[in-house]
Structure formats: structure tokens, C-alpha cells
Amino acid sequence: MPGKAEPLLVISGSCSPVTTGQVEWAKSHGFKEVIINAKEACSSKDVSALMAEALSAVVGFLKQKKSVVLHTNATDKGSQSVSSKKLGTMLGVIAKGAAASTKLKRIVIAGGDTSSYAARAMGIEAVEMIAPLVAGAPLCRVVAQGSSIDGLEVNFKGGQVGDKNYFGILLEGRMDVQV
Q1: Which one of 27, 41, 130, 145 counts the least CB within 10 Å of its CB?
Q2: How far apart are CA 85 and CA 140, in angstroms?
Q3: What is the pairing mode between strands 139-143 and 126-131?
Q4: How many CA atoms lie within 13 A of 68 on its CB side?
Q5: What is the mean pLDDT of residues 125-139?
Q6: Residue 142 and residue 150 in contact, taking contact as beta carbons nearer than 8 Å
Q7: Counts for the chain of helices (H) and strands (E), in that order
Q8: Half-sphere exposure of residue 138, counting CA atoms within 13 Å on the CB side?
């Protein structure tokens, strides 16, 4: 077992009710919440101010040793104004910035589309599996030579994957976290 990674950063662009339940569990167990308004982000040509504000909030909490769930309020699955690519890229850029500004050990990326776009934005070249904490979503080590995220632990989670305590399992680095 890989052990605890405190604080933990979770980024999510998932619209899944499963992930929504996991975010609610995390908030009720001490995670701080930072929200990016998905429709506003996707309708704006310049999202730099939104990203800077979110990054500042995330880094502030992480420096206080508080775990954070950064998510979009993308509950409108069918909305034409919400772009998975734009949101996933934004979340990835913020996560990379947070990792560069703090001593993060582990990041969880929730949402299938979010994961692919965020990984690209973070500059992840490859991953190596290090622990099978959750079936179908192993904990991995990042390969990104010359980057601040090289060696970072990452977990990519599809929206429908995991129990309510999923983020607690990734925080603690063990499977026996109580619901």
C-alpha cells in the first residue's frame, strides 16, 4: 500500500452522479471545495482570470495542508455550451500549477474525458502502475521528464467508478477507509 498523501488534490469534470456523491463525501470529510463554473468557462474566450482565481484558492488550501476537490459544476451533460476539452485542459493546467507551487504527492483526476485532456495539459508522457487501490483505476506514477510533476502519483477515475469513499481511499492510500 502506498500510504497517505496529505493533502490530496482531486480535479473533476465528471457529470456522473457517482462522482457527485464522492465529491459530497469528500466535502463532509474535510476536503475543501473550489468550483469552476463550467458554462462561464466554456463561453468565455479568455479564461485566464478564472484559472488564476481557482489556482490561488487551490494552492492556498494545499499550503494549509487541506485536501481539495476542484470541480466544474458541469451537471448539464447535454449542454452544447460545455466543452470537455476546454474544461479538462483548464483543470489540468491548474493541477500542474498547484503541483509546481506545493509539495503534492498525489492527484486524482475524475472523469473519462477530463482525464485525457487534463493529462495532456499536465504534460504527462507516460504512467507506471504502482498500486491497485481500486479495481479499474490503479494508482500510477507520472513520467514527465524535466517537469515539476515527474514522479507525482496520479489516479485516473472514470465517472462511474468507485464507492462514495473513493477520494478517502486515495487520500489514505489504503482500501479500508470507512463510508
Answers
A1: 145
A2: 23
A3: antiparallel
A4: 26
A5: 91
A6: yes
A7: 6, 7
A8: 10
